[in-house]
Amino acid sequence: MSVSQRPIAVLLMAMGGPDSLENVEPFLLDVRGGRPTPPELVEEIRERYRATGGKSPAVEITKDVAKKLEQRLNDAGGERYRVYVGLRHWHPFIKETYAELLGEAPEHIIGFCLAPQQSSLSTGAYRKKVEEARSALQSICPMSYVGSWHRHPGLIAAIVENIHQALQKFPADVRATVPVLFTAHSLPERIVAMKDPYPDEVHGTVEAVTALLDGRPTLFAYQSQGRSAEKWLGPTVESVVEELACGGHRQVLVAPVGFLCDHVETLYDIDIELKQFAAGRGLQLERIAMLNNSPALIDTLASVLTAHESSLCPTS
Known about the structure:
Layout: E1 8-14, H1 24-31, H2 39-51, H3 58-73, E2 81-87, H4 94-102, E3 108-113, H5 123-136, E4 143-145, H6 153-166, E5 180-185, H7 190-193, H8 198-210, E6 218-223, H9 237-246, E7 251-256, H10 264-267, H11 269-279, E8 284-287, H12 295-310
Parallel strand pairs: 1-2, 1-3, 3-4, 5-6, 5-7, 7-8
């Protein structure tokens, strides 16, 4: 097979999630690096999945995104691009997928994390998994990684559109003044000392979206802090919702800009837990739709990949 006929492999990476209630415990075992999870915590987390459909929808959403992205990239004809899914903590694991795509003898491989904001503890961990697979499989195929796309115009426009749509859930007479509470997954505070880009990039996304909201009041908080003893980035969503209630607000729209698709952090942490917390303080809390496998996200991902390829200098 000539180089011109060999495909470009796109390794689409995400965290993954349990595909059944029975697999919650082995999923957590992988998340915790092989350390067993206390039985009571396993059961608590299993209940969260039971309350939101019995499994994580993120895996199937990611697979559908890969399928649609491959179709979009090959719109011009031919089968130049092959898009694969590799997950950090569940099947298909990154190492499994990397071995599979090598069988296609690609011209080069592009690693693409489904996370607009970069962090050594999240996107950096995906890259580490890839490099471990490359080493274990002794791969010499050229490899490059898509960088940050936290301010990509397509991403920002899609979030703004979903905010406008979600505002329709509120009574017309208050819609214009409903504050938007942006959220992102919290990470341990130690990343600040590491000069990790994550906090700045999250705030960059928030700033870009806020600029298109015509002066609407906005706030920001971190959600879904871990259970470890170390300090996590704040403020928490609960503290900000409490402040809104104390300030006389009766509505709030949550926009989880640190996530692309639905999973337990949106379906349970926001839609059930935070919504109940807000209701107990007299607030109507609604959430914007996630981008999931929407045409807007597929177009954005294709645009990001095109820009990456135009400046590509793959390293072997």
